[in-house]
Amino acid sequence: MASDSLTPETLARAIATPMVDRISVDDTGRALTEPLREDIRFLGGLLGEVIRSHAGEATFELVESSRRDAFGIRYAEVTRDQLAGRYDGRAVADLMPVIRAFTNFALLANLAEDLHRERRRRIHQRAGDPPPPSSLAATFGKLADAGRTDADVAAALRSAEVVPVITAHPTETRRRSVFDAQNRITELMRVRARTELTPEEDARLTEDIRRQILVLWQTALIRLRRLTISDEITTGLRYYGASFFDVVPALNKDVRAALVEAYPDAGLDGLSMISMGSWIGGDRDGNPFVSAEVVDEAATSAARTAMRHHLDELAALHQELSLSARLFSPVSPALSALGSGFAPPDEPGDTDDEPFRSAVSAVRSRVLARALHTLGEDAVDPAELDTARAAAPYGDADEFLADLDVIDRALRAAHDDSIADDRLATLREAVRTFGFHLSGLDMRQNSETHEQVVAELLSWAGVCADYPALPEADRIGLLTAELASRRPLTSPDAELSELAMKELGVVHAAAGAIERFGPRAVPNYVISMCSSVSDLLEVLILLKEAGIYHAAGPGDAGPSCSVRVVPLFETIEDLRGGAATLTAALNLGFYRALVRAQGDIQEVMLGYSDSNKDGGYLAANWALYRAELDLVSASRAAEVRLRLFHGRGGTVGRGGGPSYDAILAQPPGAVTGSLRLTEQGEIIAAKYAEPVSARRNLESLLAATIESSLLDVEGLDDPERAYADFDALAESARRAYSALVHETPGFVEYFTASTPLSEIGALNIGSRPTSRKQTTAISDLRAIPWVLSWTQCRVMLPGWYGVGSAFAQWTGGDDARIADLRRYYENWPFFRSVMSNMAQVLAKSDMGLASRYAELVPDEELRRRVFSMIVEEHERTLEMYTAITGTTDLLADNDALKRSVYNRFPYLEPLNLLQVELLQRFRSGEDSPLIRRGIQLTMNGLATALRNSG
User: Fold this and answer.
1) pLDDT for 621-630, tens place per residue?
2) 104, CA 20 to 30 Å: which among 136, 247, 288, 591?
3) Annotated catalytic, 898?
4) Stated pTM of the model
């Protein structure tokens, strides 16, 4: 859209207006946040003491004056030019401590906010307030009010599954040492908040916290070398020890118990809703570093983590179950048989006085044997190798669980239910959840790569010389015939290209992981940029070559494959055609038989990131909603159960926002007890770094999934009219977005120059390249650097651009149409979520800071033209938001984020200004390891402070 209507006065006002003026914090709000501000002052004061004592008075004064000026900017007492002037001409070495100071402060502020949220939750619980909406207690209350029957619950939740899938992310570069220091400070702050301390105890505790902040200050926040996939695997696995092992089994147990109590005839006694997934080491879409060896490392590291947990818990259980046979009777024959041969050697005669310990020893010996068999000798303590060699390894986790069940029944027979309900119950649940594999490793690759490799295999085998030239119908016919045949296309001595050898190596490594750790180790194969039935069938050809897919033989009902093929519809056009693609695939007899063999479940992944990059925020969100409606209809027609996998990023521009609200905003039928979604980067740390927050966030996923499956949450009186209105709105938003991103001459040049995009690729952030291909096209750029770049410069463009124009054009000043949008906002969770998430993004944007990044664009005419378009649309979007919601307060519906923005955003000012300063120097030729590290630190600091940067 042209920016002729943007006057110089409007532009100047937009640049000069801090976004904090767009939120309202009253005296009540300030009173409620006083404990939070006190914690921030306390931690910030200790950090200041550490900086003064270890970096010197001059550095402390520069940090402190920067802090004062940052707050002065909020109150118009200081200009940004004055703050930026503090950094002019200073050596990079002098600026590094300032960057470190504000990055560390962001870490401490995050910690304080999490503790405050925990504090407020406890206050409400103690006061007997109604449970918060995203809690399971509230959900079960809603189910009771709705009168849901056992049959209703059984139908919706019998196959229920909620799977957070951990993915690697370039901004989550914190080292484990930093991670551990944060957790230690968190625990110490909890003691400080909940314990009545004497003055001496308070002084000691304060010194303990100061000591940990000193450790944090003197610990490098980021690595000097580029992250490897091995680093990312290690980072992902750290969350199991930090929270998942404690929280997931306990939550599964609690949810099952509550459901069984409320709906005893629903048949949910064996339900474990939450399991874990991972992409780290299996996602090779555009990542050339994922190989067969990496797949093996990822699967093996996960299994090793699970095994270590089970062995440690069994050792602890052995210590606890010291029950003497002299003090209870009778001893269960099954328990005696299980522990036979494992009585302590000093027991008199043939009597086993501690049968539970003997049984646990027997179980543990078989787990050790399993570790030795599947992981090798280095997975077993040398002192226990003989025990491992002498025992028979468990064949699978079900055998392990069956033996634990023997111990459980024996305890209950002895009326020791409370003992059975403690560590043993948690371990049993952990085995159900994590098995011997820990988490399901998804494979992912781009459909274009599959086509190349399958074409080569078909040519080598003499089946088809030019597969890419075939029309779609002929491709389907050829691939269907091959998938009905049991003969492979290749042989071990086949001379193939490097690409084909690598891709076949990966699927063979996946087959090896399945053989060693069971089918749950590699459950899915995701096809990026899927747009046709042949894209699905090509993957089955590769799985067949690895022995994972098996064609139907004599007497078989159909083919079999332990790995589900999951189409990922990413672009807006692919989303629109997704249901037709799925229907065409399910109309193939052999494919329908395969899905039937897989429990009549078809999983489909929806890409939030690329659809947003393709068409903008509103168009992408509506395309996703429409696609879900169509996919639900298609799956019902084919009589299969649809399971949607949401590729949500941390930011709103990549599908982020509160998970509970996002799930409730799904269309009817889209959540039928099952949900998978990606969790990424600093969002993982924010949600799952410690047990309390992990429990809260996982509980909200469960609550939303149960509500969406069993309650009518759409709230539309006339759905078809609403859908038609949003068809028009989405198309208008897409045109406005495309006019800037895809049609404005020089836009790519502006984007590259006005953001740290180039530096993201040059610095040691993440294991993947920033683009799928070596081009400068926006379509080939990965969504993470696209969003990260706009976030760092505080434009936040992917989360709002085009929305204001769409609303303004559609309403055309018509009060009746404004009223329609207000009604949708009040009654429709989808639209309310869209608006709320957009408002969160707008609250984090800042056109004043963005203008400083725009100054990095050397072409003055291009800079003026594009930045004016951005500012004009920003102003228009704010105006339409107020017209629809009736408030100028962008965070009226999100008190927690309002507190965060109000309290912490002044501290982002120095990081943004320092990033611009360093980018100017770097691009003018001042290159050194220190300046590169400084830019990287500012990126890390801003990502930490914003908490959902990419």
Assistant:
1) 999 999 999 9
2) 247
3) no
4) 0.90
